[in-house]
Each structure stands twice: as structure tokens, then as C-alpha cells.
Amino acid sequence: MNGACARVAIIGGGAMGTFFGYALAQRHEVTIVDVRMDLLQTLQAQGLVVDEGPARKVGATADAAEAFPIDALFVSVKAQDTLRALRPFAGQLNPSTPIVSLQNGLGNEEAIKAALGGSVPLVLGITSEGCMSVGLGRSQRLAAGTTVLGSGGASQITVRWIATLLEGIGLSASVVYDIRPHLWGKLVANAAINPVAALIDGKNSVVARDRNASELAQALANECAAVAKALRINLPFEDAREYVRAVAEQTADTYNSMTLDLRAGQRTEIDQINGAIASAGRRVGIQTPYNEAVLRLIKARERYRE
């Protein structure tokens, strides 16, 4: 497959799905699978656009069967939608087809395997690529980043092939033996920054520059790090507070996904981020009062409308 055109399906045409779909479409055959008819009609007519680049033609369908056959399936929906989005693919995928999840939060691995089977060749990863949706089928790249990949059931050969696929389109990608520390590392940042900025309805800069917001973010980070330690997960940094401060500075000019979801009146990934930390804390006997508090506050914001 090296150097050859691959057939790739991406479930979810939001900001990240658009970005990766656009990048992949420069060399490969891409199909976006989504349930939003207005998005599908736009993609069929105009293709995908990132920044001010030329539009790139992709397939667009609400029917999973129309995406086949494929060489890889990228899952790019919100964590709470993973199981529902993958159910139509059950029993239809070639058992050797890699499933790639770069999603936020915990529980995506379990949802994917519940939908497709426990032996699915799953590639898990995190990405620091920053982008936001600026319209149907349009995404703005906020920051160039890197993608770290590891196995959630896929062979190392398969994980390396996905990394090569991304590197071949000019993206930075690397492979690690154990992806769990990296998944939890990103969880620390998401749990500390996203709900704090979302509750203030501000950019991530508020976490780095406002003392009260910073102290709350640090408390959230400390709880997540304590849970990770109890689970014997070695985080890829020594100081969770310093890590969160650095990430907040690096993403200072961006509105995170939780903030944008609340603005749009949509459900956030709070259950899969802070809620998952609180749940894991209960299992290992670690108290997480700050994560419990922001979980309740964000869920109240989701439901409250003036």
C-alpha cells in the first residue's frame, strides 16, 4: 500500500474530520460519512476546504455501505456519538480494516469494540493539530501539530502504516509502544482547560492568564494526575500543572471544542472527560471534587437556555 492511493472513510464531517479529510484527499480517495443532509449536499457540490486552499472533491454519504470498500476508517465524531455512529458498520467491514480514533476523552475504545467487536484492528492516538469549523465542509487550521499513534488492538505494522499514510500527506506523525500515557496526558489538558474556558465563555488564554481560572485548572489537573497514578499510568510529563499552563499558552488564541459546543447549544464531551475522571477516581478510591463540580456545572449549562 506504500505510495499507492488508499480508500479512506471518515465518520464525522466536523472540524477535525474536515481537516484530516482534506489533507488525505490530496493523494487518496476519501468518503465522509455523516447524518447531516445539509453537510452532505454541500460536500457533494463543493468538496472540502481548509483555510483558503482549493476545494478537494470527496465522497459524501449517510449510508455506511456506500463507503465500501475501504482501506482505513477514521472515527471523527464526538465521544458520546461513537457507538451510534459505528453501529451501521458492524458486520460489513473487512476484519483487517484499521479503525483510527484520534478522539477526545475516555471510552472511545470501548465503544468502538462494542460496535465492531473486541478483536478489531484499532489504532488509538492523540493529535495536537488545531482547527475549527468555519462552515459546512470548511475548516480553519489554527495550529500545526503532531499526531501520536499506538495500538488498541492493531498490529505494530498496521499502526506504522497509518503513521506513514499521514506522513505521506505532509502531516507529522509518530508511533509509540504504549499509547495510554499519551491518551491520559491529553485528558489532563482537556479536563483542566476545556471546562474552565467554557464556563467563562472565553479563549484558552484565560486559563493561562487569570489567577482564579488558572488555580481551578491546576486543581482539575492534579486530580486527573492522581487518578492516573492510582491506575499505574505514567504520564508523559512530570508536573501536571506546568503542562496545563504550557498547553493553555500554546492554544491561547483558540476557543476549545467545549466552549464552541456550548455556544452552539450542543452536548459537550464533559461525560467522557471530567465525568470519566470522576468515575475512574471512584473505582480507585481517589476523590475528585473539582472534576465532579465542573461536570455538574457544564451539564447544567447544556440544559439551561434563557
Report on this model:
- By secondary structure, the protein is of the alpha/beta class.
- It folds into two domains: 7-175, NAD(P)-binding Rossmann-like Domain (Rossmann fold, 3-Layer(aba) Sandwich); 180-303, N-(1-d-carboxylethyl)-l-norvaline Dehydrogenase, domain 2 (Orthogonal Bundle), CATH 1.10.1040.10.
- It is built from twelve helices and eleven strands.
- The model has no long low-confidence stretch (mean pLDDT 94).
Give a short overview:
By secondary structure, this protein is an alpha/beta fold.
Unreliable spans = none
Might you state the CATH topology name of the largest domain? Rossmann fold
Number of helices: 12
Broad structural category: alpha/beta
Per DSSP, what share of the residues sits in E-state strands of 2 or more residues?
15-25%
User: CA-to-CA gap between the ends?
Assistant: 54 Å
CATH homologous superfamily placement of the largest domain: NAD(P)-binding Rossmann-like Domain
CATH class descriptor name of the largest domain: Alpha Beta
Q: Which CATH architecture of the largest domain is right?
A: 3-Layer(aba) Sandwich
The multimeric state of the shown protein is single chain
